[in-house]
Amino acid sequence: MMSPYEIKKQICEVGHKIYDKGFVAANDGNISVKVNDNEYYCTPTGVSKGALTPDMIIKVDGQGKKLEGTLNPSSEIKMHMRVYQKRPDVGAVVHAHPPVATAFTVANVPLDQYILPEAVLTIGTIPTCEYGTPSTMEIPDSLDPYLQNHDAFLLKNHGALTVGNTLTKAFFLMEEVEFNAKICKFARELGGVDEIPCEQLEKLMELRKKMNIPGRHPGCKRCSNLGTDKCRCKDNGAHHHEEGHVCTCGKDDAPKGDDLVAEITRRVLAALGR
Ligand SMILES: [Zn+2]
């Protein structure tokens, strides 16, 4: 068990990271950690996450009401509380405005393609929650449809929210959301996204089960034609092409399924510190 001071210090460290990485501007963003059903530590309103010190961290109850601290909780604490109410497995929540991921919601482009194996294993697709007015119950309500099956959420024209059993996990998911959004943006600029084919997705989902990767997952979004002659995955081996696209690449240079899965296993195990 971490001491109250250690929890506060960790919240500050994550705050500094999200600020340094440019995931928030000015006083934006908020972080919370659950101690028990009626005690949570969270960041105060009106302070830059880059300037947080442990004495600024406040304690609130299950309704987000202040129990301890000189500063006041953020109005966005309501969305954290909604997560804790609906997801007893969650121990920490991070909210930030990572610019690339947020731009996807502004441009109305969903982040729902499976492009990187690590992301398939950890977050799956990232849903975009309906726009809500900050500080009202509209934002917590917008999470409801997705809360049970996801650990990472985009908030339309606003930012992102990630949850985890630990604060480190929730922070890593925030990094991963922005990283995926960047790769997706670069790929689109380079001519388009070539998704991981269904057959490979199935292998990754099996691997996910085998590895007991924690957290909620939306499951594998499969090609609706899988197993039929129309399937765009099967014919192309490990390559995958949009409908109507004429393949000019040699099939043989595509990564072989088993090598790919072995390599991903190695990387994911390393990332999980096993
Ligand atoms: Zn926000």
Write the layout of secondary structure elements.
Elements: H1 4-20, E1 30-36, E2 39-42, E3 58-60, E4 66-68, H2 77-86, E5 92-96, H3 99-106, H4 117-122, E6 128-129, H5 138-143, E7 152-155, E8 159-164, H6 167-189, H7 198-211, H8 257-271
Parallel strand pairs: 6-7
Antiparallel strand pairs: 1-2, 1-5, 2-3, 3-4, 5-8, 7-8
The structure holds zinc ion.
Zinc ion is lined by residues 28, 76, 95, 97, 158-159.
At the fourth level of CATH, the homologous superfamily of the largest domain is Class II aldolase/adducin N-terminal domain
**Largest sheet: spatial strand order:** 4-3-2-1-5-8-7-6
State the low-pLDDT regions, or none.
234-257
Question: How far is it from the N-terminal to the C-terminal residue, by CA?
Answer: 21 Å
What proportion strand? 5-15%
> Helix proportion of residues, in percent?
25-40%
Overall structural domain count: 2
CATH class of the largest domain: Alpha Beta
Mean pLDDT, to the nearest integer, reads: 86
Backbone structural class? alpha+beta
The CATH topology of the largest domain is what?
L-fuculose-1-phosphate Aldolase
Q: Count of helices? A: 8
